[in-house]
């Protein structure tokens, strides 16, 4: 919420509650709709689960079970993981596949997106086994990336109270060396590799009713130029629309990173709502990274959730409008000096999201 709005509402004790969703008609509508959940990702050790449960985080995506198909990816291994998470009163809503957002030479299963056969076929077969085993273990979703460049950023910039913000300014980004290990990669080549992967993986997801949620390319790059010879086809709203249309399956959709999508837009605070409506109405939003930015396409900072350009309360109401009922999780929090692992910054984000959820859902 913007500072001016907060000050105005705080002037009368009951106006503040009303603005956050105490309106009887809005609360009645919310009561009849599915509930969104406060979620998190990557923390599934016992110490972290204890803290998450105390903070009211009741749904998570676990840490990566393993980088390769081994006992941790077996039905028994995944079942043990689910049961351990559940012992803390938390639902294991998803696990990540070993298809990360890392730069391609540091990523697992690189041949899938590099398009090298027969290596990619073996890697895809392993991914399919992981998905099937998740379904058999009672885990309803996996999330993944199809990435070559990784998450591209320039130098960090000052944030609120001496914190620092992850920042991208295309004009300052060094495209050196000019090409990645993938060499020049056209949009058509990238789409071929994505379709090749989906043609084999979506049937495995349908077989055991596991939703597969893909993260957009972060950040989007100029359509014609790309970055370091790579065209980021999942770095635009048009690209994401094409992506979901490759297969009509209800198990094929998006790990909808609101921050990354905002980075694609010229005026995120205005445009993000129609994007949420487009994908939400088609039930293609499987998970949400609920983070905020300041700026827009090719020039942005990743801020605290209350310090960016997007009205997060209004965005949350748009998710509710389209019937989204999955997790809302923080992501890419600012760096605070002395805050090891970003735990304090994440705790702030959890509380902020939980407060918005209570305001909107009651």
For the biggest sheet, the summary is: 8 strands, parallel, barrel
Helical stretch tally = 13
CATH architecture tag of one domain: Alpha-Beta Barrel
CATH superfamily of one domain: Divalent-metal-dependent TIM barrel enzymes
Strand content: 15-25%
What radius of gyration results from the CA coordinates? 20 Å
Instruction: Kindly report how far apart the N and C termini lie.
Output: 18 Å
Q: Give me the CATH fold name of one domain.
A: TIM Barrel
- Net shape: globular
Total number of β-strand segments?
12
Q: What is the H-and-E element order?
A: HHHEHEHEHHEEEHEHEHHEEEHEH
CATH class of one domain: Alpha Beta
Spatial order of the strands forming the largest sheet: 1-2-3-4-7-8-9-12
Proportion in helices? 40-55%
Low-confidence sequence ranges: 1-22, 26-32
Structural class: alpha/beta
Overall mean pLDDT score? 92
Question: What report would you give on this structure?
Answer:
By secondary structure, the chain is α/β, with parallel strands linked by helices. It has a domain at 96-342: Divalent-metal-dependent TIM barrel enzymes (TIM Barrel, Alpha-Beta Barrel). Helix content is 41%, strand content 15%. It contains 13 helices and twelve strands. The strands form two sheets. Strands 1-2-3-4-7-8-9-12 form an eight-stranded parallel barrel, surrounded by six helices. α2 (13-22) packs across α13, α7 packs parallel to α8 and α11 (268-281) runs parallel beside α12. The model is unreliable at 1-22 and 26-32 (pLDDT under 50).
């Amino acid at each position: 919420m913007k500072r001016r709005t907060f000050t105005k509402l705080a002037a009368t004790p009951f106006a503040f509650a009303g603005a956050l969703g105490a309106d009887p008609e809005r609360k009645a509508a919310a009561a009849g709709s599915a509930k969104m959940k406060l979620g998190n990702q990557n923390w599934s050790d016992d110490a972290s689960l204890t803290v998450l449960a105390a903070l009211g985080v009741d749904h998570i995506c676990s840490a990566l079970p393993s980088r390769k198909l081994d006992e941790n990816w077996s039905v028994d291994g995944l079942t043990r993981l689910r049961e351990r998470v559940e012992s803390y009163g938390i639902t294991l809503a998803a696990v990540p596949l070993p298809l990360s957002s890392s730069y391609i030479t540091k990523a697992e299963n690189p041949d899938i997106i590099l398009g090298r056969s027969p290596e990619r076929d073996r890697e895809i077969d392993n991914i399919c086994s992981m998905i099937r085993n998740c379904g058999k273990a009672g885990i309803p979703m996996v999330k993944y990336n199809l990435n070559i460049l990784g998450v591209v950023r320039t130098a960090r910039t000052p944030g609120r109270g001496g914190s620092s913000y992850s920042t991208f300014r295309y004009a300052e980004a060094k495209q050196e060396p000019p090409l990645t290990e993938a060499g020049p990669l056209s949009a058509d080549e990238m789409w071929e590799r994505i379709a090749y992967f989906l043609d084999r993986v979506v049937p495995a997801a349908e077989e055991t009713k596991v939703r597969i949620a893909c993260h957009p390319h972060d950040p989007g790059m100029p359509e014609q130029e790309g970055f370091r010879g790579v065209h980021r086809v999942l770095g635009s709203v048009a690209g994401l629309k094409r992506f979901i249309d490759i297969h009509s399956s209800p198990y094929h959709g998006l790990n909808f990173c609101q921050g990354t999508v905002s980075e694609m837009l010229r005026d995120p605070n205005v445009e993000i709502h129609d994007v949420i409506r487009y994908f939400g109405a088609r039930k293609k939003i499987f998970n949400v990274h609920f983070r905020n930015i300041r700026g827009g396409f090719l020039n942005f900072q990743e801020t605290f959730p209350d310090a960016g350009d997007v009205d997060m309360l209004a965005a949350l109401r748009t998710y509710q409008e389209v019937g989204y009922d999955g997790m809302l999780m923080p992501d890419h929090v600012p760096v605070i000096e002395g805050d090891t692992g970003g735990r304090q910054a994440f705790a702030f984000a959890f509380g902020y999201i939980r407060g918005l959820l209570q305001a909107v859902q009651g």
